[in-house]
Amino acid sequence: MSVHVARATIHCAGEIWTPYRNGASVRLSTYKSAAMLVDDHGVISEIGESAEIFKKHPSAKRIDHGSAIIIPGFVDGHLHCPQLDVIGSGGYRLLDWLDQYVFPAEAAFKDADVARRGARRLTRELVRHGITTAAAFSSVHAHAADLLFDSFDRSGLRLVAGKTSMDIGAPKDVLEPVAQDIESQENLIAKWHGRDGRLFYAITPRFALSCSPAMMKALQALREKHGSCYVQTHISENINEVNDVLAVWKGFRDYLAVYEDHGLLGSKTLLAHGIYLTESELTRVAASGTSIVHCPTSNTFLGSGLFNLNRATTAGAKVCLASDIGAGTGLSPWQTMLECYKVQALQGASVSADELLYRATLAGAEALSLDVKTGSLEVGKYADFVVVRPDKNELLGERLAVTKSSSERLFACIAYGDDRIVDSVYVAGKRLNDSVAWNDLA
Ligand SMILES: [Zn+2]
Asked: How far is the CA of 78 from the centre of ligand 1 (A)?
Protein backbone atom coordinates (compact mmCIF):
# COMPACT_ATOMS: atom_id res chain seq x y z
CA MET A 1 0.00 0.00 0.00
CA SER A 2 1.57 3.28 -1.05
CA VAL A 3 1.31 6.17 1.32
CA HIS A 4 0.32 9.63 0.16
CA VAL A 5 -0.37 12.17 2.83
CA ALA A 6 -0.93 15.86 2.48
CA ARG A 7 1.74 18.08 3.95
CA ALA A 8 0.47 18.86 7.43
CA THR A 9 1.41 20.02 10.87
CA ILE A 10 0.34 17.56 13.53
CA HIS A 11 0.31 19.20 16.91
CA CYS A 12 -0.81 18.96 20.51
CA ALA A 13 -0.99 21.31 23.46
CA GLY A 14 0.64 18.63 25.60
CA GLU A 15 4.14 17.34 24.92
CA ILE A 16 6.06 15.29 22.38
CA TRP A 17 8.32 12.73 24.05
CA THR A 18 10.93 10.88 22.04
CA PRO A 19 13.98 8.92 23.17
CA TYR A 20 17.45 9.60 21.88
CA ARG A 21 20.82 8.04 22.51
CA ASN A 22 23.69 10.09 23.82
CA GLY A 23 26.58 7.66 23.61
CA ALA A 24 25.76 4.86 26.01
CA SER A 25 23.06 6.79 27.85
CA VAL A 26 19.45 7.22 26.82
CA ARG A 27 17.51 10.41 27.34
CA LEU A 28 14.11 11.80 26.55
CA SER A 29 13.74 14.75 24.21
CA THR A 30 10.66 16.72 25.14
CA TYR A 31 8.85 19.45 23.26
CA LYS A 32 6.06 21.44 24.94
CA SER A 33 3.03 22.71 22.94
CA ALA A 34 4.68 20.86 20.13
CA ALA A 35 4.14 20.25 16.45
CA MET A 36 5.60 18.11 13.68
CA LEU A 37 5.58 19.18 10.06
CA VAL A 38 5.06 16.05 7.96
CA ASP A 39 5.79 16.13 4.23
CA ASP A 40 3.88 14.54 1.37
CA HIS A 41 5.75 11.25 1.84
CA GLY A 42 4.91 11.00 5.55
CA VAL A 43 8.39 12.04 6.66
CA ILE A 44 8.97 14.50 9.53
CA SER A 45 10.51 17.66 8.08
CA GLU A 46 10.33 19.81 11.22
CA ILE A 47 9.64 19.24 14.90
CA GLY A 48 9.45 21.82 17.65
CA GLU A 49 7.31 24.45 19.28
CA SER A 50 3.96 24.72 17.45
CA ALA A 51 3.72 28.54 17.35
CA GLU A 52 7.02 28.73 15.53
CA ILE A 53 6.14 25.99 13.02
CA PHE A 54 2.70 27.53 12.35
CA LYS A 55 4.38 30.88 11.69
CA LYS A 56 6.83 29.38 9.20
CA HIS A 57 4.21 27.25 7.43
CA PRO A 58 0.90 29.12 7.66
CA SER A 59 -0.72 27.26 4.76
CA ALA A 60 0.03 23.71 5.92
CA LYS A 61 -3.02 21.72 6.98
CA ARG A 62 -3.31 21.52 10.78
CA ILE A 63 -4.28 18.40 12.70
CA ASP A 64 -4.94 19.25 16.34
CA HIS A 65 -4.70 16.59 19.03
CA GLY A 66 -5.64 18.90 21.89
CA SER A 67 -3.98 18.25 25.24
CA ALA A 68 -2.57 14.86 24.19
CA ILE A 69 1.01 13.59 24.47
CA ILE A 70 2.71 12.28 21.33
CA ILE A 71 5.30 9.47 21.49
CA PRO A 72 6.95 7.27 18.83
CA GLY A 73 5.04 4.22 17.63
CA PHE A 74 5.90 1.17 19.69
CA VAL A 75 8.02 -1.67 18.26
CA ASP A 76 7.15 -5.20 19.41
CA GLY A 77 10.25 -7.25 18.63
CA HIS A 78 8.78 -10.72 19.13
CA LEU A 79 5.29 -12.19 19.10
CA HIS A 80 3.38 -15.17 17.74
CA CYS A 81 0.38 -14.47 15.55
CA PRO A 82 -1.38 -17.81 16.20
CA GLN A 83 -1.12 -17.38 19.97
CA LEU A 84 -3.57 -14.52 20.54
CA ASP A 85 -6.01 -16.94 22.16
CA VAL A 86 -3.32 -18.69 24.19
CA ILE A 87 -2.71 -15.67 26.43
CA GLY A 88 -3.43 -16.54 30.04
CA SER A 89 -3.05 -20.32 29.66
CA GLY A 90 -1.47 -21.14 32.99
CA GLY A 91 -0.13 -24.07 34.91
CA TYR A 92 2.96 -25.12 32.97
CA ARG A 93 6.57 -24.19 32.28
CA LEU A 94 7.85 -23.64 28.73
CA LEU A 95 8.20 -27.10 27.17
CA ASP A 96 4.98 -28.54 28.63
CA TRP A 97 3.16 -25.26 27.93
CA LEU A 98 4.08 -25.59 24.25
CA ASP A 99 2.68 -29.14 24.17
CA GLN A 100 -0.48 -28.31 26.10
CA TYR A 101 -1.54 -25.03 24.53
CA VAL A 102 0.65 -23.69 21.76
CA PHE A 103 0.96 -26.56 19.32
CA PRO A 104 -2.84 -27.18 19.23
CA ALA A 105 -3.45 -23.44 18.69
CA GLU A 106 -0.91 -23.30 15.88
CA ALA A 107 -2.27 -26.51 14.31
CA ALA A 108 -5.64 -24.76 13.99
CA PHE A 109 -4.03 -22.31 11.52
CA LYS A 110 -4.00 -25.15 8.99
CA ASP A 111 -7.54 -23.91 8.30
CA ALA A 112 -7.14 -20.79 6.15
CA ASP A 113 -10.24 -19.15 7.65
CA VAL A 114 -8.81 -19.52 11.16
CA ALA A 115 -5.48 -18.14 9.97
CA ARG A 116 -7.15 -15.20 8.20
CA ARG A 117 -9.21 -14.26 11.26
CA GLY A 118 -6.14 -14.64 13.49
CA ALA A 119 -4.03 -12.35 11.28
CA ARG A 120 -6.72 -9.70 11.11
CA ARG A 121 -7.48 -9.76 14.82
CA LEU A 122 -3.78 -9.41 15.58
CA THR A 123 -3.45 -6.48 13.16
CA ARG A 124 -6.42 -4.71 14.74
CA GLU A 125 -5.10 -5.28 18.28
CA LEU A 126 -1.62 -4.01 17.42
CA VAL A 127 -3.07 -0.75 16.13
CA ARG A 128 -5.30 -0.46 19.20
CA HIS A 129 -2.19 -0.76 21.40
CA GLY A 130 -0.08 1.71 19.43
CA ILE A 131 2.36 -0.84 18.00
CA THR A 132 3.41 0.42 14.57
CA THR A 133 6.17 -2.13 13.88
CA ALA A 134 6.15 -5.82 14.83
CA ALA A 135 8.34 -8.88 14.37
CA ALA A 136 6.05 -11.88 14.25
CA PHE A 137 6.14 -15.64 13.97
CA SER A 138 3.33 -17.15 11.94
CA SER A 139 2.51 -20.86 12.18
CA VAL A 140 4.30 -23.53 10.16
CA HIS A 141 1.71 -23.14 7.37
CA ALA A 142 2.74 -21.03 4.36
CA HIS A 143 -0.80 -19.73 3.77
CA ALA A 144 -0.94 -18.40 7.36
CA ALA A 145 2.21 -16.33 6.86
CA ASP A 146 0.87 -15.12 3.52
CA LEU A 147 -2.37 -14.00 5.19
CA LEU A 148 -0.43 -12.25 7.96
CA PHE A 149 1.56 -10.25 5.41
CA ASP A 150 -1.65 -9.48 3.51
CA SER A 151 -3.33 -8.13 6.64
CA PHE A 152 -0.34 -5.93 7.51
CA ASP A 153 -0.07 -4.80 3.91
CA ARG A 154 -3.62 -3.50 4.01
CA SER A 155 -3.31 -2.01 7.51
CA GLY A 156 -0.27 0.19 6.81
CA LEU A 157 1.72 -1.24 9.75
CA ARG A 158 5.37 -2.26 9.45
CA LEU A 159 6.09 -5.99 9.73
CA VAL A 160 8.96 -8.44 9.86
CA ALA A 161 7.57 -11.98 9.79
CA GLY A 162 8.10 -15.52 8.67
CA LYS A 163 6.54 -18.93 8.64
CA THR A 164 7.84 -20.97 11.55
CA SER A 165 10.25 -23.70 10.49
CA MET A 166 10.02 -26.94 12.45
CA ASP A 167 10.39 -30.54 11.35
CA ILE A 168 10.92 -32.39 14.65
CA GLY A 169 9.92 -32.32 18.31
CA ALA A 170 6.20 -31.57 18.00
CA PRO A 171 2.92 -33.15 16.78
CA LYS A 172 2.98 -33.81 13.03
CA ASP A 173 0.30 -31.22 12.24
CA VAL A 174 2.74 -28.44 13.18
CA LEU A 175 5.71 -29.94 11.38
CA GLU A 176 6.76 -29.55 7.76
CA PRO A 177 9.43 -31.50 5.86
CA VAL A 178 12.56 -29.57 4.92
CA ALA A 179 12.04 -29.39 1.14
CA GLN A 180 8.45 -28.18 1.46
CA ASP A 181 9.44 -25.65 4.11
CA ILE A 182 12.16 -24.12 1.93
CA GLU A 183 9.92 -24.01 -1.14
CA SER A 184 7.24 -22.23 0.90
CA GLN A 185 9.77 -19.70 2.19
CA GLU A 186 11.13 -19.01 -1.29
CA ASN A 187 7.60 -18.17 -2.42
CA LEU A 188 6.95 -15.92 0.58
CA ILE A 189 10.28 -14.12 0.14
CA ALA A 190 9.56 -13.52 -3.56
CA LYS A 191 6.08 -12.18 -2.81
CA TRP A 192 6.59 -10.10 0.33
CA HIS A 193 10.21 -9.32 1.24
CA GLY A 194 10.76 -5.58 0.89
CA ARG A 195 7.17 -4.83 -0.20
CA ASP A 196 6.46 -1.10 0.03
CA GLY A 197 9.55 -0.69 2.22
CA ARG A 198 7.36 -1.83 5.15
CA LEU A 199 7.15 -5.62 4.95
CA PHE A 200 10.14 -7.90 5.34
CA TYR A 201 10.65 -11.65 5.53
CA ALA A 202 12.35 -13.40 8.45
CA ILE A 203 13.72 -16.94 8.35
CA THR A 204 12.09 -18.31 11.50
CA PRO A 205 13.34 -21.56 13.04
CA ARG A 206 11.18 -21.99 16.17
CA PHE A 207 14.23 -23.03 18.21
CA ALA A 208 17.02 -25.57 18.16
CA LEU A 209 14.78 -28.36 19.49
CA SER A 210 12.31 -27.96 16.60
CA CYS A 211 14.82 -28.26 13.79
CA SER A 212 16.74 -31.29 12.57
CA PRO A 213 20.35 -30.92 11.38
CA ALA A 214 19.03 -31.13 7.81
CA MET A 215 16.58 -28.28 8.47
CA MET A 216 19.32 -26.11 10.01
CA LYS A 217 21.58 -26.70 7.03
CA ALA A 218 18.74 -25.81 4.65
CA LEU A 219 18.01 -22.61 6.60
CA GLN A 220 21.70 -21.74 6.46
CA ALA A 221 21.64 -22.09 2.67
CA LEU A 222 18.45 -20.01 2.46
CA ARG A 223 20.08 -17.27 4.55
CA GLU A 224 23.17 -17.31 2.34
CA LYS A 225 20.97 -16.98 -0.74
CA HIS A 226 18.79 -14.21 0.73
CA GLY A 227 21.22 -12.12 2.76
CA SER A 228 18.81 -9.23 3.19
CA CYS A 229 16.23 -11.38 4.99
CA TYR A 230 15.93 -11.34 8.76
CA VAL A 231 16.35 -14.30 11.12
CA GLN A 232 14.25 -14.69 14.27
CA THR A 233 14.27 -17.51 16.79
CA HIS A 234 14.37 -18.33 20.51
CA ILE A 235 17.36 -19.01 22.74
CA SER A 236 18.08 -19.87 26.38
CA GLU A 237 14.60 -19.16 27.72
CA ASN A 238 14.34 -22.02 30.17
CA ILE A 239 16.90 -24.19 31.98
CA ASN A 240 15.38 -27.49 30.80
CA GLU A 241 15.36 -26.19 27.23
CA VAL A 242 19.06 -25.26 27.46
CA ASN A 243 19.95 -28.69 28.85
CA ASP A 244 17.92 -30.46 26.16
CA VAL A 245 19.60 -28.45 23.40
CA LEU A 246 23.07 -29.27 24.74
CA ALA A 247 22.11 -32.96 24.90
CA VAL A 248 20.69 -33.05 21.36
CA TRP A 249 23.22 -30.82 19.56
CA LYS A 250 26.35 -32.63 20.71
CA GLY A 251 29.56 -31.27 19.27
CA PHE A 252 28.43 -27.64 19.46
CA ARG A 253 30.22 -25.62 22.10
CA ASP A 254 26.99 -24.12 23.48
CA TYR A 255 23.39 -23.23 22.57
CA LEU A 256 24.36 -20.12 20.61
CA ALA A 257 26.76 -22.13 18.48
CA VAL A 258 23.85 -24.08 16.96
CA TYR A 259 22.70 -20.86 15.30
CA GLU A 260 26.17 -19.31 14.99
CA ASP A 261 27.71 -22.30 13.20
CA HIS A 262 24.81 -22.28 10.73
CA GLY A 263 25.45 -18.65 9.79
CA LEU A 264 22.24 -17.41 11.38
CA LEU A 265 23.63 -14.55 13.52
CA GLY A 266 24.11 -10.94 12.41
CA SER A 267 22.68 -7.46 12.50
CA LYS A 268 19.32 -8.65 11.19
CA THR A 269 18.94 -11.51 13.68
CA LEU A 270 16.59 -11.39 16.66
CA LEU A 271 17.07 -13.87 19.51
CA ALA A 272 14.13 -13.96 21.90
CA HIS A 273 14.79 -14.29 25.66
CA GLY A 274 18.49 -15.12 26.17
CA ILE A 275 18.04 -15.36 29.93
CA TYR A 276 20.69 -18.06 30.41
CA LEU A 277 23.28 -16.95 27.85
CA THR A 278 26.81 -17.39 29.16
CA GLU A 279 29.40 -14.60 29.15
CA SER A 280 30.98 -16.15 26.06
CA GLU A 281 27.63 -16.35 24.30
CA LEU A 282 26.77 -12.74 25.18
CA THR A 283 30.13 -11.56 23.88
CA ARG A 284 29.58 -13.36 20.59
CA VAL A 285 25.99 -12.08 20.32
CA ALA A 286 27.31 -8.53 20.71
CA ALA A 287 30.24 -9.00 18.32
CA SER A 288 27.94 -10.32 15.60
CA GLY A 289 25.52 -7.38 15.93
CA THR A 290 22.71 -9.77 16.85
CA SER A 291 19.89 -8.44 19.04
CA ILE A 292 18.33 -9.96 22.13
CA VAL A 293 14.60 -9.48 22.49
CA HIS A 294 13.58 -9.33 26.15
CA CYS A 295 10.03 -10.50 26.82
CA PRO A 296 9.45 -9.79 30.52
CA THR A 297 5.74 -10.64 30.88
CA SER A 298 6.41 -13.98 29.19
CA ASN A 299 9.41 -14.73 31.38
CA THR A 300 7.54 -14.08 34.61
CA PHE A 301 4.32 -15.79 33.48
CA LEU A 302 6.09 -19.03 32.50
CA GLY A 303 8.49 -18.75 35.45
CA SER A 304 11.34 -18.88 32.94
CA GLY A 305 13.69 -16.61 34.87
CA LEU A 306 14.95 -13.06 35.27
CA PHE A 307 16.75 -11.57 32.26
CA ASN A 308 19.59 -9.33 33.39
CA LEU A 309 19.45 -6.22 31.20
CA ASN A 310 22.57 -4.64 32.64
CA ARG A 311 24.64 -7.77 32.08
CA ALA A 312 23.56 -8.00 28.43
CA THR A 313 24.10 -4.33 27.62
CA THR A 314 27.44 -4.26 29.45
CA ALA A 315 28.53 -7.09 27.14
CA GLY A 316 27.57 -4.79 24.26
CA ALA A 317 24.43 -6.62 23.15
CA LYS A 318 21.52 -4.73 21.61
CA VAL A 319 18.33 -5.34 23.63
CA CYS A 320 14.75 -4.40 22.81
CA LEU A 321 11.39 -5.30 24.32
CA ALA A 322 8.54 -7.50 23.16
CA SER A 323 5.24 -8.97 24.29
CA ASP A 324 5.89 -12.60 23.21
CA ILE A 325 2.18 -13.27 23.20
CA GLY A 326 0.81 -15.83 24.01
CA ALA A 327 3.33 -16.54 26.81
CA GLY A 328 3.33 -12.81 27.37
CA THR A 329 0.23 -11.64 29.16
CA GLY A 330 -0.85 -8.96 26.73
CA LEU A 331 0.15 -6.76 23.81
CA SER A 332 0.23 -3.52 25.80
CA PRO A 333 3.72 -1.98 25.60
CA TRP A 334 2.92 -0.13 28.85
CA GLN A 335 2.55 -3.49 30.57
CA THR A 336 5.73 -4.80 28.93
CA MET A 337 7.75 -1.75 30.03
CA LEU A 338 6.44 -2.01 33.60
CA GLU A 339 7.28 -5.71 33.78
CA CYS A 340 10.78 -4.95 32.47
CA TYR A 341 11.17 -2.45 35.29
CA LYS A 342 10.03 -5.06 37.85
CA VAL A 343 12.30 -7.82 36.50
CA GLN A 344 15.34 -5.55 36.80
CA ALA A 345 14.20 -4.26 40.22
CA LEU A 346 14.14 -7.85 41.50
CA GLN A 347 17.83 -8.02 40.56
CA GLY A 348 18.70 -4.76 42.31
CA ALA A 349 18.73 -2.51 39.24
CA SER A 350 16.60 0.51 38.45
CA VAL A 351 15.60 1.27 34.87
CA SER A 352 14.52 4.85 34.16
CA ALA A 353 11.26 5.71 32.42
CA ASP A 354 13.31 7.26 29.62
CA GLU A 355 15.16 3.99 29.05
CA LEU A 356 11.97 1.94 29.21
CA LEU A 357 10.44 4.03 26.41
CA TYR A 358 13.68 3.70 24.45
CA ARG A 359 13.62 -0.12 24.81
CA ALA A 360 10.00 -0.21 23.58
CA THR A 361 10.55 2.07 20.58
CA LEU A 362 13.94 3.12 19.20
CA ALA A 363 15.80 0.04 20.50
CA GLY A 364 13.30 -2.14 18.61
CA ALA A 365 13.90 -0.15 15.44
CA GLU A 366 17.67 -0.50 15.97
CA ALA A 367 17.31 -4.26 16.47
CA LEU A 368 15.46 -4.45 13.16
CA SER A 369 17.92 -2.10 11.41
CA LEU A 370 14.94 0.16 10.74
CA ASP A 371 16.09 3.05 12.93
CA VAL A 372 16.79 5.26 9.91
CA LYS A 373 13.06 5.11 9.19
CA THR A 374 11.26 4.78 12.51
CA GLY A 375 11.57 4.32 16.29
CA SER A 376 11.89 7.98 17.30
CA LEU A 377 10.48 11.33 16.22
CA GLU A 378 13.26 13.09 14.37
CA VAL A 379 13.58 15.06 11.17
CA GLY A 380 14.09 12.64 8.28
CA LYS A 381 12.26 9.71 9.85
CA TYR A 382 8.72 8.61 9.03
CA ALA A 383 6.03 10.08 11.24
CA ASP A 384 5.20 6.83 13.04
CA PHE A 385 3.66 7.84 16.34
CA VAL A 386 1.01 7.35 18.99
CA VAL A 387 -1.28 10.05 20.33
CA VAL A 388 -1.67 9.34 24.04
CA ARG A 389 -4.60 10.68 26.04
CA PRO A 390 -3.79 9.97 29.71
CA ASP A 391 -7.06 11.57 30.80
CA LYS A 392 -8.95 8.62 29.27
CA ASN A 393 -7.84 6.78 32.40
CA GLU A 394 -9.26 9.02 35.11
CA LEU A 395 -6.84 7.95 37.82
CA LEU A 396 -3.85 8.48 35.53
CA GLY A 397 -5.11 11.92 34.53
CA GLU A 398 -5.30 12.88 38.21
CA ARG A 399 -1.89 11.34 38.90
CA LEU A 400 -0.25 13.42 36.14
CA ALA A 401 -1.57 16.59 37.76
CA VAL A 402 0.87 16.11 40.64
CA THR A 403 3.96 15.18 38.61
CA LYS A 404 6.86 17.58 38.21
CA SER A 405 8.73 16.41 35.10
CA SER A 406 8.18 14.70 31.76
CA SER A 407 10.05 11.61 32.98
CA GLU A 408 7.78 11.42 36.04
CA ARG A 409 4.73 11.74 33.81
CA LEU A 410 6.10 9.04 31.51
CA PHE A 411 6.65 6.68 34.44
CA ALA A 412 3.09 7.24 35.61
CA CYS A 413 1.85 6.42 32.09
CA ILE A 414 3.91 3.21 32.13
CA ALA A 415 2.49 2.17 35.49
CA TYR A 416 -1.16 3.08 34.81
CA GLY A 417 -1.26 2.83 31.02
CA ASP A 418 -3.30 0.48 28.89
CA ASP A 419 -5.05 0.55 25.52
CA ARG A 420 -7.61 3.09 26.80
CA ILE A 421 -5.04 5.89 26.63
CA VAL A 422 -3.98 5.11 23.04
CA ASP A 423 -6.07 7.65 21.13
CA SER A 424 -4.68 7.63 17.59
CA VAL A 425 -1.95 5.75 15.75
CA TYR A 426 -0.06 7.03 12.71
CA VAL A 427 2.38 5.36 10.34
CA ALA A 428 4.17 7.60 7.82
CA GLY A 429 1.90 10.48 8.78
CA LYS A 430 -1.26 8.55 8.02
CA ARG A 431 -3.79 7.93 10.79
CA LEU A 432 -4.40 4.19 10.73
CA ASN A 433 -7.57 4.37 12.76
CA ASP A 434 -9.12 6.13 9.72
CA SER A 435 -7.38 4.39 6.86
CA VAL A 436 -8.03 0.74 7.68
CA ALA A 437 -11.38 -0.72 6.70
CA TRP A 438 -11.66 -2.55 10.00
CA ASN A 439 -14.91 -4.25 9.00
CA ASP A 440 -13.06 -5.96 6.17
CA LEU A 441 -10.52 -7.17 8.69
CA ALA A 442 -13.11 -8.48 11.19
ZN1 LIG B 1 8.28 -16.57 21.46
From this structure: 6
